[in-house]
Amino acid sequence: MRFEELDADKIQRLGSEEQWLAAQELVRQKQVHFRFRTPDRLEAAVQNNENWCTAAVSIIDGGLQSTCTCQHEGEGWCVCALAVLAAWLDKPESFLDRTALRDQLKQYSKSELIKIILELADKVLESRELLKEESPDLDTILESIDSIIGQVGPTGAAETGELEEKLRLAQEKADRLAQMGRLSEARATYFYLLDNVFGLEEDLGKPGLFSEELKQELYEEYCQLIHEDRHLDRTLVQQEIEQLESRAAFSQSQLNFADLKKNFIGEGE
Asked: Its domain of life (predicted)?
């Protein structure tokens, strides 16, 4: 399933007619804000009466699942989640494509990114608070990953899309470490993310629990950091790669370290 394949008939079945009409009204009243998307997730901030909430719709195992901070109780989806889908049907281009944006930003030079950040700080007050945050600490990042993975129950019942968003926050902190020149700590974080993602899929017997997009991205960044680190601890990295390759879920994925190991060993000769 893809979000582009959705239509009003499919969405209406997720709630009552009254809920669907209320969701459409929220869109007409421009109450669905800060919209963004990835290939398998839509998310927005919804203002319903005087309440604000964050609602998300994810594609999981070929079906749609929703989460919302409004703590909806009752049959069907909450109005907020339906409003996210109504907004998508109304104007899909209004949802920021984070994947494309991330790829685009990677093309900018460091000086260009600094200029963009400074312009944002001038125009968006909230961005100034982010810039005041202290440098990330490796142990704190790893502990946060443990906490996120620990939220998954023995059956993997937690919302995978929501977990992925939390893991991406840890990924962003790893990127900050890399930008600060702390490449070994950034690589360690990416390894820890990969090991926990594949380890959880292995423990639950669900190789496709997390999206291929997330796993591919973590893998590519991990490999890139290995190549960039001039002070690489090769023995440690070999142990990390062996650990990942020992994961059954990793062996069932499309990822492999054959080329990396060939170049890696060649560099060490």
From this structure: Bacteria
